[in-house]
Amino acid sequence: MEGYLTQKENSSATEHKRFAFLELMLIWEGCVSAKQIQSQFEISDRLAEIIIKKYKELYPDNIAYSGEKRAYIPTPQMVAQFSDGTLQDYVQIIADHAMVSELPLPKRRIDPAFVRPILLAIREQKRLKIDYASVSNPNFSQRIIQPHHLVFDGIRWHVRAYCEKNQGFRDFVLSRIDPAFGGELLDGADHYDIEDEDWNAFVDVEIQPDARLEENRKHLIALDYEMTEQNGEYRKTVHVRKAMLMYFLRRMGLDQYHQKPEVQQITLTAHCQAQLKL
């Protein structure tokens, strides 16, 4: 992929988007035609043909014409260059959303007005005054933080920051920052992400099918999580920032233990539990 960097830099953002669509159609639908590109981007048939031709010139090992389908198909050795090629990417770009349904989740209130100063504080390494509330302290109180990253845990957005009140790095849930106050930029920060030990430390989280399951069910769970078999046991290792470990365990259902293995499905390996001291 790095070998094509110069070619990509010479392509426009619009062309990137069109090439990404072309790739995702090749990967997930098995073919792509000029008509599909024309319909997706509301362009002329001729321009759609030019897009395919240019992509084929850039990446001849990715795409081939099929007379039988009267469309272009992916080659066996195709490697996506303009997208990750994931199913999520495909779902986001397809026009026919009637084929796909997603589980609706409660929307978290994220007001751009108070995210802007957080982003500015991160970018310019500034201190930031906010009003914040938590479950343990539900009344808004003033905090001065020194943010260095935004974090998404799969459900909620957080800002990772040094807290001057608690004199340490911690997470602040964005939806718990008082939008009425908005945030006030102060002078330069004196604590940086390089000092955040839990942010810079990574842990290997090793999961396995619940040992209580029968072998055929273990095999199914292994397929779900792309586990590999090691010495007759299924395993999957995920590299996680120590600061985000709690969110990972919670999201994967590993922060509790169900009585029914069919509900639990996966657990941490004994070695991993010992390493993480859980």
From TrEMBL:
UniProt domain DNA-binding transcriptional repressor CapW winged helix-turn-helix: residue ranges: 16-94
Residue ranges constituting the DNA-binding transcriptional repressor CapW C-terminal dimerisation domain according to the UniProt record: 202-268
Residue ranges constituting the WYL domain according to the UniProt record: 115-178
Top-rank taxon: Bacteria
Pfam family, one: BrxR_CTD
Name the record gives this protein: Uncharacterized protein
Lineage: Bacteria, Pseudomonadati, Pseudomonadota, Gammaproteobacteria, Oceanospirillales
